[in-house]
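USER: Fancy drafting a protein?

ASSISTANT:
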Amino acid sequence: MALRVVQWATGGVGVAAIKGVLEHPDLELVGCWVHSEAKNGRDVGDIVGTGPLGVTATNDVDEILALDADAVIYTPLLPNPDEVTALLRSGKNVVSPVGWFYPSEKEAAPLRAAAEQGGVTLHGTGIAPGGISEKFPLLMSTMSTGVTFVRAEEFSDLRSYEAPDVVRHVMGFGDTPDKALSGPMQKLLDGGFIQSVKMIVDSIGFAAEPRVRSTQEIAVATAPIDSPIGTIEPGQVAARKFHWEALVGDDVVVRVTVNWLMGEENLDPPWDFGPGGQRYEMQVQGNPNFSVVITGFQGEVGEQGPEPGVVATAAHCVNSIPAVCAAPPGVATYLDLPLFGAKAAPGLQRG
């Protein structure tokens, strides 16, 4: 029998997750929580553009908690531990790209207690964090010995990211440098990427300092730049870099970096992506040294359709559901789950 799945929130990742559930032969969509009154009571297929699905969206949390379901894909803009705790206690496994990738014992304890009470599991996953920033570097590191350094890095042109409210008010683009540097983005990113760094440190066994070093850099426009939030004027923030580093003494042994640029022109400092363009990179130094470059997760400016990285984030959540539902109750990281992959497209699946 198919696992019964609820989608929590219908932003970009949520819409992609619903479509992913519909394509997965082992999953069935049975419910959907929405934030807005405008979506409440509508057929989920009408919301995501697939045609009627016979599943009605609701903004009533109690309706979701009472629903007979195996798992919830939890994709709000910001995590709410109280919501997740309630879902776990109601007997629903939770998979989410907004946290809990490698939580500390203090953070994990109440969630683990709720999961054990409900007989279910919480799993954090995604693309970065939740994939390229820790899972896949660790997976690839098995091809080396005597590891001295691990790096994961994103290079993205945010002119293709069609979420203007997030870009302006959360990411801080178009702000003054002082406002952006003191804004919420560093703290929001710290919550996930520090866990990524610590997972690599613990798994490889580096004798790193407990504190992960977080730093950020800003570039401003030197001429008007067209962007999803309108024109970014000279002197306003047009590019950001964030770094998270684990150190053994003075040596950096793990570094995770995010490079977000509104194009490669008219920036001060004059940052660019280099000849590799938009990409994700993973690097391991050891015996032997190697690097991996992944393209295809960043959209090109002017392309129609959802951002590929958003779809990939949702896919990682969707594809993890069977393994999470089969895991022992508690909080499960990537390290606790077996290897799993995607499923064939409808029409190519075995009967």
About this structure: The chain has a mean pLDDT of 96. The chain has ten helices and 16 strands. The CA atoms of residues 61 and 83 lie 9 Å apart. Residues 185-204 form the longest helix (20 residues).
